[in-house]
Design a protein that fits this description.
Layout (H helix, E strand, L loop, with lengths): L6 E4 L6 E5 L10 H7 L4 E5 L15 H15 L4 E6 L1 H12 L4 E7 L12 H8 L9 H8 L6 H8 L2 E4 L2 E4 L3 H6 L1 H5 L13 E6 L10 H7 L3 E6 L6 H4 L1 H15 L1
Parallel strand pairs: 2-3, 2-4, 4-5, 5-8, 8-9
Antiparallel strand pairs: 1-3, 6-7
Helix pairs in contact: 2-3
Length: about 260
Amino acid sequence: MNKPLYFEEYGQPGSPVIIFLHGLLGSSRNWRSIGKALSARYHVYALDLPEHGDSPHAEQTSLVRMAAQVGDWITQNISEKYILCGHSLGGKVAMLHACNHPQDLRGLVVVDIAPRDYPPEHHLPTLDALLSLDLSSLSSRKQADEALAEKVPHWAFRQFLLTNLKENDGAWQWRANLTTLRQSIAQLSCNPLQPGDHYDGPCLFVRGGKSGYLRSEHFPLVTQAFPRADIVTLPEAGHDVHVEDKPGFLLHLEEFLAGAF
């Protein structure tokens, strides 16, 4: 039997269900703060996507494969209609799942990503930097941070990446399946949808005003596939909208949830 996807859970059974999916090289912990904020009113699940965190690793992956594995987890664990919310890579997986299983959702929330192709080379320097780290020579997380500093100069982004590093009996290893993600980055960077794919349920797209991932010229792509989409901008946030403007994100999210449930 295949190992199931790892998840964190907040709130009480019987409350309306919302499922969160993180972005590339993230994990369920990226949604921990939001999950706790919603836990009084909702039953919240945050998943580790395949090839990430404590979820299963394989030799190859794609958006279609990830969406199928998320769909299998939902079938096995969720018996009522739910809201699905995904950020970046998780948003792509969420869009594809919504188009494939529209009858199962109460609504869809997509955070700072569009249904379009993105250049895969954008992620290659980061993945290559992580793969170049000699884990066998590490004695501390600080040493890993210093070793990555030249190739990943942005401190906050480097700390995010290093959440993937774990120590096990004195040996350091990556939580994410970096080799497979590196080999599959073209498949993960492409448009998750095929021509004609659409989801007609309620949708909320939240973008960061300082991010280039979901720009105004992409809005027609959104509304073509998701005709009921509301698109909101948090002007002071970058790509990690829910982290950089948590109050603003929660304000729009909870308004959407109240209408969907």
